[in-house]
Amino acid sequence: MTRNFAEWLLTFTDSIANYKYYIDFETIYKNAEMYKIELNMMNTLIGSNDIEKDFEQLLKKYPEILQCIPTLLAVRQYEMIVLDDDGNKFEYNFKKMNYNVQQYKIFMRETGLFELIEKHLVNNLYDYVLGVEAGLNSNARKNRGGHLMENVVERFIQKAGFKKNETYFKEMYLQDIEKKWKLDMSFISNKNTSTKRFDFVVKTDKCIYGIETNFYASGGSKLNETARSYKMIAEEAERVVGFEFVWFTDGEGWISAKNNLRETFESMNNIYNINDMKNGIMKDIFK
Q: Are 172 and 164 in contact (CB under 8 A)?
């Protein structure tokens, strides 16, 4: 059946954000819980009248409290490099002390952590870390967004009756496809010089399907490059016996790049959006 590109483009959606996209509290709680004991030890310093002395005593008795300090500064790693005003470089290790207590006191003072704790600017360091983790988690929103379309496509693959690692597979390279199903993928791999990887591969009794997924909420030059690239892959895939290329894409970003997308749409058999998936296209394609 011939499809109308303009009508198809009207069915594109502006967002695929799910409930977990905006913030992932499960991860926030898990990360904060890692240092709950150490943070509660550090809580004894809140409002201290002699923060440096009390910190020194606490550190000597419980050196493990160092592990929670990077988190207080919204830093993930245990090693932190600092260059002081005199040009001296210090490479602090918060997993295992590599300087004396005095040097760690300098770190706490100069970063402002002593002031935060001493002046009672927070009531509980564990609650403070929950806030820090919430901020870090919101910064990871872009990474979550990058996988949203993959998750959408995978759900529809599963609804169509395919089972992971049995009849569908995630992130398969051309070499893996060749080895598993004895297909000649050299037309796509540029004679085995390319390391192309498909987001999904679906296996039916009649054919192997290589699948790419993406979603573009905003425009840009990348979209034109993507459309051209996938058009070329579709043309190359036609030369591979027993293999088909399928592209699932969506997002209002395509409005600004519709000319290139139209060109690919008109030359490629298997290009679909989320609306197509909702209308059961998976069962029509994968037979």
A: no
Burial of 272 (0-12, 13-18, 19+ CB in 10 A): buried
List, for residues 155-193, the tens digit of each pLDDT value.
999 999 999 999 999 999 999 999 999 999 988 866 555
Q: Which domains does the chain have, with CATH numbers?
A: 5-16+142-285 (3.40.1350), 25-139 (no CATH)
Give 268-272 contacts, CB < 8 A, sequence gap 24+: 268/230, 268/231, 268/234, 269/234, 269/244, 270/209, 270/234, 270/244, 270/245, 270/246, 271/230, 271/234, 271/246, 271/247, 272/246, 272/247, 272/248
d(CA 112, CA 168): 52
Tokens for 8?
């198809």
Q: What is the pLDDT of residues 104-138, one digit of tens each?
A: 999 999 999 999 999 999 999 999 999 999 998 88
* Alpha carbon of residue 230 to chain centroid: 23
Q: What is the Cα–Cα distance from 256 to 223, expressed in whole angstroms?
A: 9
